[in-house]
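Query form — protein Novel STAND NTPase 1 domain-containing protein

QUESTION: What is the three-dimensional structure of this chain?
INPUT:
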Amino acid sequence: PTPPEDFFGRDDIVLTLANLFIGNDQRRIAILGAGGLGKTSIALHLLHHEIVAHRFKGREFFVGCDGVTSADGLASLILKILEALASASGNVINTLHVALAGALPTLLVLDNFESTWDAQGNHNAVRELLKKVASVKSVSVIITMRATDPPTEIRWSWSETIPPLSPTSAKYVFLAVHGPLPSGSNSDDEILDGLLKELDYVPLAIHLLAQVSRGFELAFMLKQWRGRQTQMLRLEAGMRTLDRLESVDVSISLSIESLDIKRNPGAIQLLGMLCLLPDGLFRWQERLEAIEKTFETATPDLFLLRKFALVYTARDKLGVLSPIRHYVLRYHPPDSQHAQCIY
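ANSWER: The structure tokens for Novel STAND NTPase 1 domain-containing protein are given below.
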């Protein structure tokens, strides 16, 4: 895929990662974070960077893991993208290993790897697949993943959670997609600054806001946002089903599905509780101990929310990004007993 043109505030990350590919050492990179932060965009810009292109000479492959829920399915998809023949009777993971081991230096980007990693099923097989791929020293791997921590089965060269954009970069994104504001309009400029802040500078939310705002005054869009929140951050698709890049709600729902709220009802309740606090939960460690006196699973529930990057910590604050917060309060609000416990 072609990297997006409207790409601001991430050049330093891309350059840092590209420089890792100077030389011939194998690299294993994990680009982590909540949905909508631009992990895929970073991976695509890295994939097309001149340093990477010079290193792998056309053997850079992008593998979208959406909907791939098994190790065999992912191995088969990679073989197909590599245009390598799969054995009719052999183990497809071993076949992939042999194909990679016999090839020139290769870069694999496994995008949205959580779709396969967190799928209900044979997790051991997915773990084995990742280890097999990483064991080939001529193969470098980049994963993007809705998570706070990468799989621990292999040693990563670089692994970080991507933050939201800076206010300045967020404004660049909006104006690049929307077009310039009326010249000399201080009120529009102030409204835009406020809107971007209310979105917590999440790139996908800003991109969609800019598209749906075309032709409307920003004061009107601010009222729409405060009334409809994430429901307005979607494109019109007619009868076609929206994907995760066309709707903030669709993007967030994928993370909620990974949480598996039927098996983990306490986790969605804790998330709902945290979403009641726009400014976050301060002194969260001692507050969590107090909450745990009433709800015993609060700490393991928090670990689960953190695993799927549905919450973040900043010093003594535990918070939820604005789009996730509004989505959860609309579709998964906490019950009254849990809600009372947070205050």
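ADDITIONAL NOTE: The CA atoms of residues 257 and 263 lie 11 Å apart.
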